[in-house]
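Recall that a protein's primary structure is simply its ordered list of amino acids. Everything else, from secondary elements to tertiary packing, is in principle encoded there. The following example makes that idea concrete.
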Amino acid sequence: MQSALDKGNTANPAKTPAPSTAPAEGGVSPLNAPDRKYSLERTRNIGIAAHIDAGKTTTTERILFYTGLIHKMGDVDDGNTVTDWMEQERERGITITSAAITCYWTQKQEGLNKLMGGIPHRVNIIDTPGHVDFTAEVERSMRVLDGAVAVFCGVAGVQPQSETVWRQATKYHVPRIAFVNKMDRTGANFENAVQEMRKKLGAYAYPVVLPIGKEDYLRGVIDVIDQKAIVYDDKDAAGMKYEITEIPDDLKERAKTALAELISAVADKDDEIAELVIEDKPIAPLVLKAAIRRLTCKIEFVPVLCGSAFKKKGVQPLVDAVIDYLPSPLDVPSATGQDPADANAVVEVKSTDMGKFCCLAFKLWSDPFVGKLIFFRVYRGTLNKGDTIYNPRTRKRERVSRVLMIQADKRIEVEKTFAGDIAAFVGLKNIITGDTLCDEDDAVLLEPPTFPDPVISMAIEPKTRFDRDKMSVGLQRLAEEDPTFRCFTNEETGQLIIAGMGELHLEIIRDRLFREFKVEANAGAPQIAYRETITKAAEGEGKFIRQSGGRGQYGHACIKIEPNERGKGITVENKVVGGTIPKEYIPAVIDGVHEAITTGNLAGFPMVDVKVQITDGSFHEVDSNELAFKMAGIFALKDAVKKAGAILLEPIMKVEVSTPDEYQGDLLGDLNRRRGKVSGIEAKNQATVLNSDVPLAELFGYATVIRSLSKGRAAYSMTPSHFEQVPNSILEKILELNKPKAART
């Protein structure tokens, strides 16, 4: 292994693999349209994702500056960053909605061997929120991205929302690189952060960059592969001046060890590098980088970089790594979808400008100036302004009048879009998040993103009669934009209920109603979105018989229910034999079962994880109809649930509290009072980290309490974990509060 390093950076150029079949800039390959400026091979669609306050937006801002898109860097604290453009984002210093922006990067040679050096690349970036309440923004962004940069805090390492966004990236098979940020902060520890990635995330993560110094003495970074140091000039406030030089003597051994570990790790996964190691041949930087790229694109390797976005150190190597290691649309497997005419037929959608147009609408947004924007990612073909597109879900065609490229809050009208582009339609109707829009001659249904159900709700009402109509319009538009936001009317109380992912989520909804739609509203106390399920198998029977002179109604259904595996949802099967229920009435019984499931039996909450089998029934040749069998299905399910040991489930949050040692006892006691189950206590960077599972119902107002108990020195974060049975000690109170009015009087 050592000899491979000592023999220098020479290798047979013929053995150096090209990352993709890229034509020279401006050239034409069979996959690219002749009028395309940046080829598919030179396109990157990436997301910046992390736990809240890890520095995503600051990192994005620095990238935009160094790529020349902006000429003055903003800061989150000053409320003047490009991608945090909403008033609420700038006031709170957090990202609420994902922002898309496009920049361009040409790698500089300057003595460093760059895999993709010397050719301009187009980089489409989506800056995503880190707060758990806005996890839907991360979810839908991951669905359309080819790669991601996971940002970690050098002090806190892997945090709860870090795990969530990592799982989301894994779910959609998104390759990623890691950037350990805030290496200038007191307590920053690069090695610990890498170890946590391996331990908590299961990532095959190895550094390609090392820090030079840390905390106040962070001077730059070491390029592990090229064995060079990048040292920044502290007198240059913009971070533009840096020197590529020899590694300082006290870090040379560490850099050599890191390179040996990197080569060994890559050799374990890549046959070409393994062959060079076995044959004791030298490994050139380009050969090693190409191997890392191959493994990263296959989601088998995570290159780790570091720096300080705030102090403007280590950002340029990060952008180089985006180009070097993250895939173009051609380096990831082709998208697949369903044939609208045959749900079992899988259709491949290959990334090329030459095929029939196909895109996925992943986000809707109400713009005060241009109206409803529909963000889309093009997977195949090109689209010209004025073309007609087809929606397989609605089976309707619509003409495209305007197409915009999005630069955060700025809109640039374009005449044409190409495969791999992220852009927005204006003015299209009847589009929802997850719709496929394509050429009617080659229709396909791409897989839409999936979203979690709301966990919190509250009643809301307009302050005046004048606000009522405006509130209705506003809520409808907000529900179209945000798949995790719901609004509905409680049939028992007549109240309008809004539901979302957390207190902050609903607070932002109310604020947007006021600012964007000029609606003032009163809100009730937040309520928990409980779920109901069963604990044992049971049978039920439902009969619906009405006879009031003339033709009557008759429906009779028997069902069997049993608990489904946790997380499997609802399954309804038809097991009727012998025609006891005619085939044409089976769908009506299924509809009735589903309707009854949405309101449960205990307190009117939706049921989850139940398996239903329709087993028997009877019919009347004259009086039977669909309505009668639907009612029979409702009655049968309610009858079965009464015998099936129904229980109530509540959402449990994974809570991580970081506190100075002296407040540990008080905070542990408070978590116990909140029915929390402490799963671990660990020391990390002069602080104690408490990990626990706490019912969401006990966490209202927790931010104020934790500040009070720790004199403002403790911090916490939480992410949804799972559902658990509500203890009997508080079940009766919940049932009493949620009984219909008639039952309480």
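The two ends are 81 Å apart (CA to CA). The first strand starts at residue 43 and ends at 50.
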